[in-house]
Specification:
alpha/beta; two-stranded antiparallel ribbon
Length: about 300
């Protein structure tokens, strides 16, 4: 099952394995792609059906790593196209659009600032399309900006972007709607979603019930894939799990979301053993398995599995 194909829109995924985005810090200080970025993806491109390149900031306000890739200007398109090209030679090239604003909380952003950041995702999606990427992922997880809007643990706003779940989802859904309108049906859209923030371990956490409701709305707005994760900054161990954590610990969340939506779901975290990964697909708990650190450690892992 792990090496069976899967079709989304008019794109054929050659197997059920997707390399998930992980910041490399290989870009220049200004966010431009370097040869090291290109070489990194080229050596890993043969195995997985798709590679979703690392979280790329859509606006300078949301840059949070010193050598993070940027997609915030048209001058970045040429370098990004070289990355897309080496991936596309073997599979589907994707890129994650993300913001992690450190200078202000979601509660301190003005409405005008929200609109600027919202629009930056739309502009970035168009750049991704021009660069030759076939898939874009919107980052709604891990305590990054859009995840903070979703969670009562972070979001204390009293305007239309805060309060009940409908309001807290508003910005994310506006971005999805605007991106879909600009890229039409030419690109696959993935959404990275936290099934549980584990932020404060209180009733304010963004938990599975809200994640399911959010995933249903994402599907209604035209998202093609839900990539399921968990944890925020102070609970990074939930999505970058150490060896002491059980294998496949987040699969139960992917399965629950899959049971409630009609679009494919990616399971992630500690799935870097063939038997475990294959069982997730064979048992129908998810449609794809996502691997990041396994492919960092061994760029040829998937090829070895197939052999």
């Amino acid at each position: 099952m792990l090496f069976s194909p899967y079709k989304i829109r008019n794109k054929i995924f050659k197997n059920r394995i997707i390399m998930l985005p992980t910041v490399t810090n290989f870009a220049t200080e200004n966010g431009f792609v370097t040869q090291k970025n290109i070489d990194y993806y080229k050596i890993r491109a043969k195995g997985p059906a798709a590679i979703i390149c690392e979280a790329s900031y859509t606006h300078l306000l949301g840059k949070c790593f010193p050598n993070q890739v940027g997609i915030d200007g048209d001058d970045k398109i040429e370098g990004l196209s070289r990355v897309a090209k080496v991936i596309s030679e073997h599979g589907i090239a994707g890129i994650q659009l993300a913001l992690n604003v450190k200078t202000k909380t979601v509660n301190e952003l003005s409405r005008d600032e929200i609109f600027v950041l919202r629009d930056s995702f739309v502009s970035a999606a168009l750049r991704a399309k021009k660069a030759g990427f076939e898939l874009i992922e919107l980052h709604f997880a891990h305590g990054w900006l859009l995840n903070q809007f979703l969670s009562r643990a972070f979001n204390k706003r009293v305007d239309e972007y805060g309060g009940n779940l409908e309001n807290r989802m508003r910005l994310a859904l506006e971005i999805v709607e605007m991106v879909k309108d600009k890229v039409n049906d030419d690109m696959i859209i993935s959404a990275r979603v936290n099934a549980n923030d584990y932020a404060k371990l209180t009733t304010e956490d963004f938990k599975l019930e809200e994640a399911i409701a959010f995933s249903k709305r994402l599907e209604k707005y035209g998202v093609d894939i839900i990539s399921v994760s968990a944890g925020v900054g102070q609970t990074t161990y939930m999505h970058v799990s150490p060896m002491s954590m059980p294998k496949a610990t987040l699969v139960k969340f992917a399965q629950k979301i899959k049971e409630n939506v009609g679009i494919p779901v990616i399971a992630a975290d500690r799935l870097n053993y063939y038997e475990i990964a294959n069982d997730v697909i064979k048992s129908g708990k998810a449609d794809f398995i996502g691997i990041a650190r396994g492919l960092i450690a061994d760029p040829h892992l998937i090829e070895k599995w197939q052999e």
